[in-house]
């Protein structure tokens, strides 16, 4: 199992670290455009191997795609992150060019690869890879909902004063401050609806805190977060590599599901060795449907900025 991670910055390196620590991949190639940067990150990470007990071989390369050849899974984290006060959508001008170029180089060297898109604005970047890479639709996965759901569970556990392992919940919709649809109605504590434990007002607060989860961290850190994004990507990579058939909300190209077509947006999917093996259609209520529709309009307005 060979995994390439493009972009050896904060998220790329964190993702490589979690993949290595979980010890399921034989090889991780880190690639960055900055001279020597990926090589340095790879060497530093390899020097944690004897301490953290993993055998995954991590190598770093400067823009040399021949070293990524034969990758089973490629992760795209290259591009600029947002600064405090910025929206993810504002990154499109720079990141669209980078993501298009990177995905074409990856597919040239690994025609059978599965691509996980992380760079923002992620739903639009996933759409761009669909339109330009020539890969089958089950092989292009946008990572956003797995992270947003982890943040949702963190906020739910906080509100319930419960351990995170007691709570479950999912965020679908667009990966943006306004587009996320945290499914509060379906969130549970050990299969009991969370509304049994907290007021509607507190639950609405959980929803709002979840939606601005990334912005809150960007304000604190001065740049966007990396631990939870890296962990979320590594969970998707592991689900595919180990054929786990796990369900995650991911940005997926819809073709009629949820009443939408020709859009990449967050919906629950089953991930296994073939990438997206199934899109799970939930019965949404009217408010959730309206929220999804509004979210899709936001994603489409960013997609319209692409020069395809
Ligand atoms: N989808 C999500 O949930 C999620 C979460 C966090 C961050 N992000 C996004 O991930 C991206 C990376 O964030 P980060 O914090 O790691 O940024 P970063 O600046 O730390 O790292 C980005 C890296 O990409 C490299 N790069 C730029 N152009 C490249 C190219 N053409 N080829 C190869 N490498 C190139 C840079 O040299 C840099 O090392 C951003 O767009 C950010 O918004 C997405």
TrEMBL record:
Q: Where is the Lactate/malate dehydrogenase N-terminal domain?
A: 1-142
> Origin organism of this chain?
Aequorivita soesokkakensis
List, alphabetically, the Pfam families matched. Answer: Ldh_1_C (PF02866), Ldh_1_N (PF00056)
Which keywords fit this entry according to its UniProt record? NAD, Oxidoreductase, Tricarboxylic acid cycle
**What EC designation does it have?**
1.1.1.37
Instruction: Determine the domain of life of the protein's source.
Output: Bacteria
Q: List, for all copies, the residue spans of the domain called Lactate/malate dehydrogenase C-terminal.
A: 147-298
* Gene, per the UniProt record: mdh
EC class of the enzyme, as a word: oxidoreductase
Protein name as it appears in the record? Malate dehydrogenase
Positions contributing to NAD(+) binding: 7-12, 32, 95, 118-120
Catalytic reaction(s) noted? (S)-malate + NAD(+) = oxaloacetate + NADH + H(+)
What task does this protein carry out?
Catalyzes the reversible oxidation of malate to oxaloacetate.
InterPro entries membership: L-lactate/malate_DH (IPR001557), Lactate/malate_DH_C (IPR022383), Lactate/malate_DH_N (IPR001236), Lactate_DH/Glyco_Ohase_4_C (IPR015955), Malate_DH_type3 (IPR011275), NAD(P)-bd_dom_sf (IPR036291)
Q: Which SUPFAM superfamilies match?
A: LDH C-terminal domain-like (SSF56327), NAD(P)-binding Rossmann-fold domains (SSF51735)
Enumerate the Gene3D superfamilies for this protein.
Lactate dehydrogenase/glycoside hydrolase, family 4, C-terminal, NAD(P)-binding Rossmann-like Domain
Q: Where is the active site?
A: 175 (proton acceptor)
Any idea which positions bind substrate? Answer: 82, 88, 120, 151
Q: Which GO terms describe its molecular function?
A: L-lactate dehydrogenase (NAD+) activity; L-malate dehydrogenase (NAD+) activity
Entry similarity comment: Belongs to the LDH/MDH superfamily. MDH type 3 family.
GO biological process terms, alphabetically, are: lactate metabolic process; tricarboxylic acid cycle
By its UniProt entry, which PROSITE patterns does this protein fall under? PROKAR_LIPOPROTEIN (PS51257)
